[in-house]
Structures are given as structure tokens and as C-alpha cells.
UniProtKB/TrEMBL annotation, chain A:
EC number: 7.1.1.2
Taxonomic source organism: Carnegiea gigantea
NCBIfam families found in the cross-reference section: NuoG
Domain named 4Fe-4S Mo/W bis-MGD-type: residues: 102-158
Tagged with keyword Translocase: yes
Keywords associated with the record: 2Fe-2S, 4Fe-4S, Electron transport, Iron, Iron-sulfur, Membrane, Metal-binding, Mitochondrion, Mitochondrion inner membrane, NAD, Oxidoreductase, Respiratory chain, Transit peptide, Translocase, Transport, Ubiquinone
Entry annotated with the keyword Transit peptide: yes
InterPro entries: Mopterin_OxRdtase, Mopterin_OxRdtase_4Fe-4S_dom, NADH_UbQ_OxRdtase_75kDa_su_CS, NADH_UbQ_OxRdtase_ferredoxin, NADH_UbQ_OxRdtase_Gsu, NDUFS1-like_C, Prok_molybdopt-oxidoreductase
Record-given protein name: NADH:ubiquinone reductase (H(+)-translocating)
Reaction(s) this enzyme catalyzes, per UniProt: a ubiquinone + NADH + 5 H(+)(in) = a ubiquinol + NAD(+) + 4 H(+)(out)
Primary localization class, coarse: mitochondrion
Matching PANTHER family: NADH-UBIQUINONE OXIDOREDUCTASE 75 KDA SUBUNIT, MITOCHONDRIAL (PTHR43105:SF13), RESPIRATORY NITRATE REDUCTASE (PTHR43105)
GO molecular function list: 2 iron, 2 sulfur cluster binding; 4 iron, 4 sulfur cluster binding; metal ion binding; NADH dehydrogenase (ubiquinone) activity; oxidoreductase activity, acting on NAD(P)H
Automatic annotation (TrEMBL), chain B:
Cofactor(s), by name: [2Fe-2S] cluster
A GO molecular-function descriptor: NADH dehydrogenase activity
Full protein name: NADH dehydrogenase [ubiquinone] flavoprotein 2, mitochondrial
Source organism superkingdom: Eukaryota
Pfam hit, one: 2Fe-2S_thioredx
Region Disordered: start-end pairs: 214-254
Cofactor binding comment, as recorded: Binds 1 [2Fe-2S] cluster.
UniProt binding sites for [2Fe-2S] cluster: C129, C134, C170, C174
PANTHER family: NADH DEHYDROGENASE [UBIQUINONE] FLAVOPROTEIN 2, MITOCHONDRIAL, NADH DEHYDROGENASE UBIQUINONE FLAVOPROTEIN 2, MITOCHONDRIAL
InterPro entries: NuoE-like, NuoE_dom, NuoE_N, Thioredoxin-like_sf
Source species: Carnegiea gigantea
Length: 560, 254
């Protein structure tokens, strides 16, 4: 008794609340909830999915969905950060680590072209969680669910050792020396024009620079980046950047989305568009396959036919753009894959001209890129010499490109795969060179608005993997075409000669010339409708495809 | 020794409290979340009836077209009258569709107000006032009498589906306490009525129930024959003279 009773003195009814099932990302401990309604406001005002609400009254009041419903927003993970009491917590991170054990590394995200600012929390060699970092110009204080929860993909399907495919078709682990020697030998056996390099969607600028330099030294200029199409337009930066800037999209009062589904392709850009719709009552017109929007929008049509109608002023939406103060046209990078992309672009540019979209004080003609590497690749001039370089390749150097059409590669081609995940392209590879993922290296990325940002290593590399540019530098030495840089500083000096904007860190370098000065296209526009660039929001690259959490999201949240 | 006695006393006090805690009452008629049942699920089709469609239009016409969601409470009320005194989840979805808001915004309203029933009630839903003045005047006895007579628990429907008993907070009849309110859903939204029976006694409520069962309409208002409305028993005792004009009301002089 000296220390008081061993029983609680609370004899009233203890209030308790049933936990809700909000899906594979958000865990609920509803008894902790204090009914602050931050999550309800976030869901209805920013995420735009009205799932959560305040039910009941008085002491029986609780947050919930009333009917059994999962939270189907691509921004749902942010309610975890918002919840002041931990009633909504991260399901994958719950009870996995204490946050004083974690080391925070301020980095950026590469799963889409937005380049959201993130903090990677790691414990020893393991990434434990990813949190957003405030950057009002890019992602504000939110990140998408893919950014937040893709990290478990970094622990699975990783490539540890250099490997060579034997005559029996099986991979055998070898030393770096042997692997590089084999690659260098084959590289010298083929003709220079038969050497082809493809950079992947997660590649950093340094490694793309090194790859381009290596192939150029070997006499080939067939180096491209996946997602940029066969003949990318790299001459004018305004032709592939989000010229308005992500933050300035808020000022727009009319949007024309051409073949882009921003909700799936760049969730943070979509949040900005939603903000403009809410605050400026911006009108949104969309041309493309049927899709879901989380704000009021008008589905104008599915293909170039509608685009022509708007250009000729026959469509009712053309007056909406003309009368807008700050009109914004956003073209999806999925159109890069079309044969007639130049024609599509020229029609869009004629709309821009007639609606006065590009003015000295406002540039509303935008391209929304899909992948983290795309902008830097075009800045560095990764433009292949011919249209069908892969089809005629004898030596193919794949640097993390996993969405290649493997059937296109000739059967007698020697394929080198350099990457961090055993994903689709590994099936065709003859040699595997393991490299580090974005959490393990220092790399420069340019996002869709042309902002240069940097990843920093948060965890050590896996197994015998090396940084991408170092592998290429080592290979150049073995092949006898030594590249003249030995450190990141040296390679950045080289990048400065090609694209100086990639060195002004955390700054956005807008395009100088507008794309309205481009020559007339030669090809006719075909009338085939636009296709969706991304089918599954949760699985777009090798990291997210290896992720278990993303697989659960795909199975539970995307089922109709 | 002293310690043991103190502990014993503490246990006794706790026991006493625990007993009263068990008697704590729950006012809500249903849970704050929906559980699918054969007669209440989102896949069940639900529409306003032909004659109620006109009423829906009339209700919507009372609000500006950009504030349609203002009509959510009258529409839920209409849906409740049409559906025999309670609102299934598909009716809430239909209301949400009509006022053009997300369904959750309607669920929030329907769960907030205790007058919206989200589980089945009887054709005559008897609501006993449980607030302090009525409680002092014996509303617990009234409720006990009703529950005993009908053989149900609170918020339970009788086997014949005719009656259910619920509790409500103050309905503003404290001067005629105790009172019950009877919501009559026996004839849909056309014959819907919501009447107060005041100054009731345990005997009188049973009589009222029996009259309702026979289809009669017992006179509503005070059940004390010696009172007129909210006046004192046996007629007025004060203010018997003609009312005098107030003094110093020569407005011209001011």
C-alpha cells in the first residue's frame, strides 16, 4: 500500500473504438484518436478522395468510413504524418524500429519525374522508412504512396555479384575483373555502329554521362534513355520540361491535359492541379483514355481528333482556353512513344499560339515527364543516331532499363545488364554488372520542371555492387578507352561542359527559348487515340515491382 | 492491519461504483459503422417513391442550386418516413446522389442526429424523454412500464413489428413532464405523425400503447384531464384579472 493501490481507480466505462481497415498502408489504432479531423480534412481537401468522415456525436464520435471501404488515394500515406496521436500509423513500419535508432538522410525520390524531397530513415544497412521533406516548390510537405512505401523493394530481388551466363543458360557469379574483361572483349569484337546503350528510368546524370562518353569513345552514338521515344526532341529544353514550374501551376485557371493522367503519372503535380481547381476554379479538359480524376474535369475526347477540333476552334473547350488568364497545356510524356509525336506537338503548339499560352510573363506550355532520368538524359543529349538502333545491335549495354521490348533485341546480340534489381531485362542479359540503387549513391537528377537535385547515400551498397558511373569508368579502362574522370567532382566538370544546369543544385533552370520556334513537322498526325502511359500507379520501375507492399496495393486498391 | 482494512474498504467502494457503471446508458440506436445485412446493404436498390419524388423536388427548390447539400436533413427525414422509420445505407447513398455530395458526408449527418434511425424500428416508435425534469418526475418508471408491457429491451422491436421503445433527450415539455413522443410510421410519409403525450403515468402509457395497437388515435398533448395544455392543474391561480396596460407607455411624451 505504501506506493498506492495496484489496481486502477478508473471505474467508469472506458471508451473504446473499433479499428478500421484502411488498406495495406495505413494502420489504425482508433482508441488513440482525439477527433481532430485532420485526416478528414486532408482526404477531402488535398487528396480529393472523400472516404473519411466524422461519425456519431458526443462521446460516441469517431473517425471512420461508415461502410467498409479502403482508402483509395495515391496520397493516403500522408495521413500518417498528419495524425497527431498515432491513431493512423504506417502499417509497414509499425513496430519495426524505434525512431531514435534511425539515421536520417536527406535525399530525393526517383520513382517518378517529380523528384519529391524525402528523408530516408535507415538503420544499419536497411532502409526502414521514407518520409517527406518540406519543399514548397516541388512536393510541399506531401509525398505519394509509391514514394513512401516502395522502400521494401530495395531489399528484394537485388543483384549482388557480377555474373556471366554460361553455355547452359545459367548465371555464374564471377569477379569484377573477369566480368569486365569479357564485356570489354566482346565490345571490341563488334563494329562500332552495332554498339548500343540504353539508360534506364532510374539512372542518374553522372552515369548517363559516363555511358554516353564510353560509347562515343568506342565510336558509337546510339545511346538513349528509355521513355524518351525513338527520336527525342532534345534541341529545345522547353520541348520536354514542365515550363510553368510545379509551384506555378497553382496560378493557372484553365488546364488542357493531352494524353496525360497526372494522378497516376505524377501524383504531386496532380495535387497542384487540384489546388488550382479548388482555389482558382480552374477548368480542366482532358484528352486521353477514360480515367479517374479527383477534381472536376471534362473528358473532351480520346485522341488527336479532339486536339484538332480545339486547334481549329470548333470545340467548346477552345474558348475556355482562350478566355483564361493563365492557361496551361500539359502534354504527357507517353506521347514521346508515338510515331507522330512531332505532329501532335505542332498541333498543341498551334493551340498555344492562338490562346496566347506562352507570354513573357507566363509560359503555360508543358510536358509532364514520367521518369526521374528523362530530363537529365535529354539535357545530356542522349539521343540515338538511328530509329531502330536496338534492332540492329550486336552489343547492347542496358543500364537499368527494364521496360525494353526484349523481343526487339536480335538473338545474336550480346547483352550487358547493369542494374540493381533482377527485373525483366535480366532474362535476356549475358553479363550482369550489379550497381547501387538511389538510396546507396550520390547522384544528380533533373525533375520534370528542370530542377536539379541530388540523392545522397543512406545505406551501404548490397554485396559487390558499385556505383553506376564507376562501373563504366572501370570498363573503359579495361577496354582501353580510359574515361578522363576519377571522382564525382571530375565527372561533374565533364557534365558542366555538356549541360551546365545539372550543376546548379536545388535550382530550377527554366528553358531559355520557347518551343514555338521549332520547324514544321514532316509526319502527318495519325488518328489513333492516346494510350495510358502507366497502367499501374504502384508498379512502374524495378524497385516498385520488387516491393511487396506495392504488390499488396496493386492487389487490394486497384481491383475494381 | 490498517492497510488491509483500507484495501477492503477501497474494494467495497469500487464494487459500489462498478455497479453503477454497468447501468450506464447508451443513447445511440446503432453502431457508428455499417455492417452489411440482407435488408441493409449498399447493393440494395433504393429510390424515392413516385409521390415522394415531388416532395424531393419541392425540398430542393427551397435551397439555392449551389447549396444543394442543405437539403440533406429534410431528404433523410423523408427517406426515413418512406422506409418505415429507418434509413438503410442505400437510401443514404441515394440522398448523396441527389444532393451531389460524397456518401460519407451524408453518413456523417445520419450518424450525428439520434432522430435518424439506422436500424429497424417498430411502426410506432415510442421515445421516452430521459432528461432531468422528466427523470425526476418518473420517466424511468414510464420506460420500465413500456418495456415490461411490450416484452422488449430498449431499441428492440416487438415480434409483430408494431412497437419499439427508445430514449431521447429533452423535447422541451419539461412543464408537462414526464412525456413520451410517438413517431407513427404505420402509413408511410403520407400518414406520418410525430405526437407528444405529456403528463403520462405508467398506467396511461400502457393505455396509449393499447389504443395505438387497435389503430385508434389517442388525443395527444397532456394526459392529465385537469390541465389545459401547459396550464396549472385545476385552472389558473394567478393573473386572473384583465391584463392592465403597462405603465408609463405614453410614447408621445417621450
Amino acid at each position: 500500500m505504501a506506493f498506492g493501490s495496484d489496481r486502477g481507480r478508473f471505474t467508469e466505462m472506458k471508451r473504446s473504438v473499433v479499428d478500421k481497415n484502411l488498406g495495406p498502408l495505413v494502420k489504425t489504432v482508433m482508441t488513440r484518436c482525439i477527433q481532430c479531423t485532420r485526416c478528414v480534412r486532408f482526404a477531402s481537401e488535398i487528396a480529393g478522395t472523400q472516404d473519411l468522415g466524422m461519425l456519431g456525436r458526443g462521446s460516441g464520435e469517431e473517425i471512420g468510413t461508415y461502410v467498409e471501404k479502403l482508402m483509395t488515394s495515391e496520397l493516403s500515406g500522408n495521413v500518417i504524418d498528419i495524425c497527431p496521436v498515432g491513431a493512423l500509423t504506417s502499417k509497414p513500419f509499425a513496430f519495426k524500429a524505434r525512431n531514435w535508432e534511425l539515421k536520417g538522410t536527406e535525399s530525393i525520390d526517383v520513382t517518378d519525374a517529380v523528384g519529391s524531397n524525402i528523408r530516408i530513415d535507415s538503420r544499419g544497412p536497411e532502409v526502414m522508412r521514407i518520409l517527406p521533406r518540406l519543399n514548397e516548390d516541388v512536393n510541399e510537405e506531401w509525398i505519394s504512396d509509391k514514394t513512401r512505401f516502395c522502400y521494401d523493394g530495395l531489399k528484394r530481388q537485388r543483384l549482388n555479384d557480377p555474373m556471366i551466363r554460361g553455355p547452359d543458360g545459367r548465371f555464374k557469379a564471377v569477379s569484377w575483373r573477369d566480368a569486365l574483361a569479357v564485356v570489354a572483349e566482346v565490345m571490341h569484337q563488334v563494329k562500332p555502329e552495332e554498339i548500343v546503350g540504353v539508360a534506364g528510368k532510374l539512372s542518374d546524370a553522372e552515369s548517363m554521362m559516363a555511358l554516353k562518353d564510353l560509347l562515343n569513345k568506342m565510336g558509337s552514338n546510339s545511346v538513349s534513355c528509355e521513355g524518351n521515344g525513338v527520336q527525342p526532341q532534345a534541341d529545345l529544353r522547353s520541348g520536354y520540361l514542365l515550363n510553368t514550374g510545379i509551384a506555378d501551376l497553382e496560378k493557372a485557371d484553365a488546364f488542357l491535359l493531352v494524353g496525360t493522367q497526372p494522378r497516376i503519372e505524377a501524383a504531386m503535380v496532380n495535387a497542384r492541379i487540384r489546388k488550382a481547381v479548388r482555389s482558382n476554379f480552374a477548368k480542366v479538359g482532358y484528352i486521353g483514355p477514360a480515367t479517374e480524376f479527383n477534381y472536376d474535369s471534362e473528358h473532351l475526347g480520346t485522341g488527336p481528333q479532339t486536339l484538332l477540333e480545339i486547334a481549329e476552334g470548333r470545340h467548346p473547350f477552345s474558348s475556355a482556353i482562350k478566355n483564361a488568364k493563365n492557361p496551361a497545356i500539359i502534354i504527357g510524356a507517353g506521347i514521346f512513344e508515338r510515331e507522330d509525336k512531332d505532329a501532335v506537338f505542332s498541333v498543341v503548339e498551334s493551340i498555344a499560339k492562338s490562346a496566347n499560352v506562352v507570354r513573357p510573363d507566363w509560359n503555360g506550355l508543358n510536358v509532364l515527364l514520367l521518369h526521374a532520368a528523362q530530363a537529365a538524359a535529354l539535357d545530356l543529349g542522349l539521343v540515338p543516331e538511328s530509329d531502330n538502333s536496338i534492332e540492329s545491335a550486336k552489343f547492347l549495354y542496358i543500364m537499368g532499363a527494364d521496360d525494353l521490348n526484349l523481343d526487339k533485341i536480335p538473338s545474336d546480340a550480346f547483352v550487358v545488364y547493369q542494374g540493381h534489381h533482377g527485373d525483366q531485362s535480366v532474362y535476356r542479359a549475358n553479363v550482369i554488372l550489379p550497381s547501387s540503387a538511389f538510396t546507396e549513391k550520390e547522384g544528380t537528377y533533373a525533375n520534370t520542371e528542370g530542377r536539379t537535385q541530388q540523392t545522397l547515400p543512406a545505406v551501404p551498397t548490397v554485396g559487390d555492387a558499385r556505383d553506376d558511373w564507376k562501373i563504366i569508368r572501370a570498363l573503359s579502362e579495361v577496354a582501353g578507352v580510359r574515361l578522363p574522370y576519377d571522382s564525382l567532382l571530375d565527372i561533374r566538370e565533364r557534365m558542366k561542359m555538356v549541360a551546365p544546369n545539372l550543376l546548379s543544385m536545388d535550382e530550377r533552370e527554366p528553358a531559355t527559348f520557347s518551343s514555338l520556334i521549332k520547324p514544321e513537322p514532316k509526319k502527318e498526325m495519325s488518328m489513333t487515340p492516346f494510350k495510358a502511359a502507366i497502367e499501374n500507379f504502384y508498379m512502374t520501375d524495378s524497385i516498385t515491382r520488387a516491393s511487396k507492399i506495392m504488390a499488396q496495393c496493386t492487389a487490394q486498391l486497384l481491383k475494381k | 492491519m490498517l492497510a488491509r482494512r483500507a484495501a477492503q474498504r477501497l474494494a467495497e467502494i469500487r464494487q459500489a461504483f462498478r455497479h453503477s457503471a454497468q447501468a450506464s446508458r447508451s443513447l445511440s440506436t446503432a453502431l457508428n459503422y455499417h455492417i452489411d445485412t440482407p435488408d441493409n446493404n449498399p447493393n440494395m436498390p433504393w429510390k424515392f417513391s413516385e409521390q415522394n419524388q415531388g416532395k424531393v423536388k419541392e425540398i430542393l427548390s427551397q435551397y439555392p442550386s449551389n447549396y444543394k447539400q442543405s437539403a440533406v436533413i429534410p431528404l433523410l427525414d423523408l427517406a426515413q418516413q418512406q422506409h418505415g422509420g429507418w434509413i438503410p445505407v442505400s437510401a443514404m447513398n441515394e440522398v448523396a446522389r441527389i444532393v451531389e455530395v460524397a456518401p460519407i458526408r451524408v453518413y456523417e449527418v445520419a450518424t450525428f442526429y439520434s432522430m435518424f434511425n439506422r436500424i429497424t424500428v417498430g411502426k410506432y416508435h415510442l421515445l421516452v424523454c430521459g432528461t432531468t425534469p422528466c427523470m425526476i418526475r418518473g420517466s424511468r418508471d414510464i420506460e420500465d412500464a413500456l418495456l415490461k408491457h411490450l416484452g422488449v429491451k430498449r431499441n428492440e422491436v416487438t415480434k409483430d413489428g408494431l412497437f419499439s421503445v427508445g430514449e431521447m433527450e429533452c423535447m422541451g415539455c419539461c412543464v408537462n413532464a414526464p412525456m413520451i413522443a410517438v413517431a407513427d410510421y404505420s402509413n408511410g410519409s403520407e400518414g406520418y405523425s410525430y405526437n407528444y403525450y405529456e403528463d403520462v403515468t405508467p398506467k396511461r402509457v400502457v393505455e396509449i400503447v393499447e389504443m395505438l395497437r387497435k389503430g385508434e388515435k389517442p388525443p395527444h398533448g397532456t394526459q392529465n384531464p385537469n390541465r389545459i395544455k401547459a396550464g396549472p392543474e385545476g385552472g389558473n391561480t394567478t393573473l386572473l384579472s384583465e391584463p392592465q396596460p403597462p405603465p408609463c407607455r405614453n410614447l408621445e411624451a417621450c
